Amino acid sequence: xxxxxxxxxxxxxxxxxxxxxxxxxxxxxxxxxxxxxxxxxxxxxxxxxxxxxxxxxxxxxxxxxxxxxxxxxxxxxxxxxxxxxxxxxxxxxxxxxxxxxxxxxxxxxxxxxxxxxxxxxxxxxxxxxxxxxxxxxxxxxxxxxxxxxxxxxxxxxxxxxxxxxxxxxxxxxxxxxxxxxxxxxxxxxxxxxxxxxxxxxxxxxxxxxxxxxxxxxxxxxxxxxxxxxxxxxxxxxxxxxxxxxxxxxxxxxxxxxxx
Length: 259
Hints:
Blueprint: E1 16-20, H1 40-52, E2 57-60, H2 65-72, E3 79-81, E4 86-88, E5 94-96, H3 101-118, E6 121-125, E7 128-132, H4 140-153, E8 157-162, E9 165-170, H5 175-182, E10 192-197, H6 203-211, E11 215-219, E12 228-230, H7 233-249
Parallel strand pairs: 1-2, 1-10, 2-3, 10-11, 11-12
Antiparallel strand pairs: 3-4, 4-5, 6-7, 7-9, 8-9
Helix pairs in contact: 1-7, 5-6
């Protein structure tokens, strides 16, 4: 990857809309996805950032909202889950796209059968199923071939590739589409968009933010269309902390009292 600059240090939370991936971005990637949790520092800075930005902070993830709430507990934020299949808006309203239950159940059964034969991990989400092969990277080609077969059998399915994971999603939604939609309404409307992510599925988010003349931040190494880079999740947390600290040092502006 060509060396990219870090994101700008002089960035006002009051004028920015923050969109943040979770795994590999706010948290380190670990072998068991179910055990991922935000650190106390990460939770604290997200809460402070949410306050300073008047609510313009959203998690944008391939995980479900239920899983994300466990990771961030007790913090609750606006969330885009399952790459955009479900969204929790700033007012708490939930929007979900639900696939045909019978078709989804049959797909999950097929993926679980395959995983059981090879000792792989299956993750089910509303409208999607993921096959993790981090414990058996030698099976990457076999896993890809199997998941491609399932996608070819049903044109409603989109196959997404990530770090040691393959995911079948019902629909054509992307993180980029989800970010573009959120940017059309308060509290995100009219702000500079910032999106931080680490994986292939985050590239649509980077592309969307670039089109909006925003700030795209790749976490870690790898080819990307992002315009900025930070080396690891801890660096992102430090960067967000610096934005909050700078904002807290600036005097808050209140309207003049009526005469």
